[in-house]
Amino acid sequence: MNVPEQPPQPLIIAGKSYRSRLLVGTGKYRDFAETRAAIDASGAEIITVAIRRVNIGQNANEPNLLDALPPSQFTILPNTAGCYNAKDAVRTLRLARELLDGHSLVKLEVLADDATLFPDMPETLTAAKELVADGFQVMVYCTDDPIQAKALEEIGCVAVMPLASLIGSGMGILNPWNLEIILDRAKVPVLVDAGIGTASDAAIAMELGCDGVLMNTAIAKAKNPVLMASAMKKAVEAGREAFLAGRMPKKIYQGSPSSPTEGRIS
Predict the structure, then answer these.
(1) Closest by Cα among 225, 166, 178 to 198
(2) Contact residues for 1 (Cβ-Cβ < 8 A; gap 6+)
(3) Residue 31: CB atoms within 10 Å
(4) Which residues pair with 49 in a beta bridge?
(5) pLDDT value at position 243?
(6) What pLDDT digit, counting tens, does each position of 204-263 carry?
(7) Of the candidates 100, 83, 93, which has an alpha carbon nearest to the alpha carbon of residue 130?
(8) What pTM, to 2 d.p., does this model score?
(9) Is the torsion defined by CA of 138, 144, 146, 151 positive or negative?
(10) Which residues are registered as beta bridge partners of 212?
(11) SS3 of residue 7 by DSSP
């Protein structure tokens, strides 16, 4: 029996199409060679770069990440990791735009403290307003609060990226119900950002209907980052297919035979 194939449904962000729904960070790897190998295995096309932590040209005498991951092959997504107020976040992304020849697609994150790395939502909203007004296409890390996510969309952010759990925690999706509310209301792509620990977490996010998943630590700090990157690629693809297929309804206290009951041999 031939199973009909679903037509490919690209991820569309700010008007550009991407085959992969897995976005990958570039921090915490052993070296740029391992970074490149893991990203190749992941199939990711959008690569996040922490401008405050990784050299993409701001330090002329240091190795440049863009030599390993050239913008001709990947969409570089500069992010504001390490920023704790709107002013620093805006300044960092303006620097990134200069370094990347006017590149406008960015990831905004404004952190509340360095213990939890939880988003500071008032500062995030302030920075988002300024960046959108300045012509940036803003993908934004936020809490899993549906009201805040909608507010960011209304400001003009091109994607909202609620956390699944704390950055680097590997705890997986702790509140799927909030994510479902965000997904139900959003008119822009919703991507889970932060907290993914292993492939099953990524699959669950996609099964819920998320448009994509962004991760770094789950791959970079695996015992075998390249193999984990390959696993994450498959998990995102499988979760997306399961979402499109539509799961069977859950039935509490109601068994259902997997084979027909009519015509049984007695």
Answers:
(1) 225
(2) none
(3) 10
(4) 78
(5) 95
(6) 999 999 999 999 999 999 999 999 999 999 999 999 999 999 988 888 776 666 666 565
(7) 93
(8) 0.87
(9) negative
(10) 191
(11) coil
- Count the helices and strands in the chain (H runs, E runs): 9, 10
Torsion of the alpha carbons at 199, 204, 205 and 210, rounded to the nearest 10: 120
Residue 196 burial (C-beta neighbours within 10 Å; 0-12, 13-18, 19+): buried
Contacts of 19 by beta carbon, 8 Å cutoff, 6+ apart = 8, 10, 11, 43, 45
Q: Is 235 helix (H, G, I), strand (E, B) or coil?
A: helix
> Which amino acid is residue 133, in one-letter code?
A
What backbone torsions phi and psi does residue 71 show, to the nearest 5 degrees? -60, -15
How far, in Å, CA of 190 to CA of 192, rounded? 7
Amino acid 150 reads: K
DSSP characters over 195-224: ---SHHHHHHHHHTT-SEEEESHHHHTSSS
Q: Are 101 and 116 in contact (CB under 8 A)?
A: no
Would residue 107 show up in a list of annotated catalytic residues for this protein?
Answer: yes
User: In this structure, are residues 67 and 74 in contact, taking their beta carbons and an 8 Å threshold?
Assistant: no
For the record, the structure tokens of 229 come out as 């990157």
For residues 81, 86, 88, 90, the Cα torsion angle rounded to the nearest 10 degrees is: 90
Q: Catalytic: which of 16, 28, 87, 107?
A: 107
Torsion of the alpha carbons at 235, 44, 58 and 52, rounded to the nearest 10: -20
